[in-house]
């Protein structure tokens, strides 16, 4: 992102990243450019830095806390099927 002042990605707040995506819309970037930038920034925050990209509603937050208490992870995926024998 431009204008970050030589800060690492972990020091850029989510609100500033949202503002950056807003400036792309403001300067007339195409939908595909905006979509690719959004996907990259979202991946950076959610996967690499482990931060929430979107704000959660109180109900969603409560649901995630309940899942955590019960030992479920929102990122847990079902196990892959065993490969077929050749």
- Structurally, the number of domains stands at 1
- Globular, elongated, flat, extended or rod-shaped: what is the shape? elongated
Oligomer: single chain
Instruction: Name the poorly predicted regions.
Output: none
The sequence of SSEs as H and E is HHH
Outline the structure in words.
The protein is elongated. The protein contains three helices and no strands. The model has no long low-confidence stretch (mean pLDDT 78). The chain has 86 residues and is an all-alpha fold. It has one domain (9-69).
Top keywords for this entry?
86 residues, mainly alpha, 3 helices, elongated
Describe the SSE topology.
Layout (H helix, E strand, L loop, with lengths): L13 H13 L4 H18 L9 H12 L17
Helix pairs in contact: 1-2
Concise structural overview:
The chain is built from 3 helices and no strands. By secondary structure, it is mostly helical.
């Amino acid at each position: 992102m431009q204008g970050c002042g030589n800060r690492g990605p972990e020091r850029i707040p989510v609100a500033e990243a949202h503002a950056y995506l807003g400036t792309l819309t403001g300067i007339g970037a195409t939908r595909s450019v905006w979509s690719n930038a959004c996907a990259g920034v979202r991946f950076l925050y959610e996967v690499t830095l482990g931060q929430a990209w979107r704000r959660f509603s109180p109900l969603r937050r409560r649901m995630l806390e309940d899942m955590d208490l019960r030992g479920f992870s929102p990122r847990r995926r079902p196990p892959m099927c065993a490969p077929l024998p050749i």
